[in-house]
Design goal:
Shape: elongated
CATH superfamily of the largest domain: Tetracycline Repressor, domain 2
DNA-binding region: 41-60
Number of helices: 9
Largest sheet: none
Organism: Streptomyces noboritoensis
CATH architecture of the largest domain: Orthogonal Bundle
Structural class: mainly alpha
Domain HTH tetR-type: 18-78
Keywords: DNA-binding, Transcription, Transcription regulation
Protein name: TetR/AcrR family transcriptional regulator C-terminal ligand-binding domain-containing protein
CATH topology of the largest domain: Tetracycline Repressor, domain 2
Length: 209
């Protein structure tokens, strides 16, 4: 199968094709942050990226297809997990990474737009789910390491712990006008760590004594 026939984001093309993808996704992110999915127009993205309209329409097809590839690229480019040697240290690093992303003048509005679009577009929703599954997969080993160190009970659902870290930060992003700061990130990490130690995320409700 030729790269032009593949689903967006499933290949890593080189040369000019890679440069076009980079330019188009950057332009799409800017447009999405400014106006949301409803205002995302492939011709406008092509103009911003300084590439031909035909190229954009042929490769991405629809605004939802463009958003799906944008999310795939964001997952690929996300920073790897930080390992500090303690559960709280690792969860705090994760929370601060999420906080910096959501507090960013471009990334924050972009995520708001994608989340809003995912409520009414199945392709965008699927892409968003894949993005977060990728990020949870990246950070879940930190929790498993805490289990192996004896910080957490066996049977702890590592993925649920990671989700519990970022959930309060997204809630604040979507429901308040309050700026997300490191204090909010640290509180989210501390709450998730305390709940994990109390056995909230274990199947049997066990705790570490």
């Amino acid at each position: 199968m030729a790269s032009g026939d593949a689903d967006p984001g499933t290949v890593r093309p080189g040369g000019r094709t890679a440069r076009v993808r980079t330019a188009v996704l950057a332009a799409a992110g800017d447009a999405l942050a400014e106006g949301g999915l409803a205002e995302l127009d492939l011709a406008d993205v092509a103009r911003r990226a300084e590439v031909g309209k035909t190229t954009v329409y042929r490769r991405w097809g629809t605004p939802a297809g463009l958003v799906a590839d944008l999310l795939a690229d964001m997952a690929e480019q996300s920073l790897p997990r930080t390992e500090t040697g303690t559960l709280l240290g690792d969860l705090r690093a994760n929370a601060r990474l999420v906080q910096r992303t959501l507090a960013d003048a471009r990334q924050g509005p972009l995520f708001k737009a994608v989340i809003a679009a995912a409520t009414c577009d199945e392709q965008t929703a699927a892409a968003l789910h894949r993005f977060y599954e990728t990020r949870v997969d990246e950070w879940a080993p930190c929790v498993q390491q805490a289990v192996e160190r004896g910080e957490l009970a066996k049977g702890t659902d590592t993925r649920e712990v990671i989700r519990a870290v970022s959930a309060p930060l997204y809630y604040r992003l979507l429901t308040t006008a309050t700026a997300l700061d490191e204090a909010a990130a640290d509180r989210a990490a501390e709450a998730a760590a305390a709940a994990a130690r109390a056995g909230v995320f274990t199947t049997g409700g066990g705790t570490v004594r």
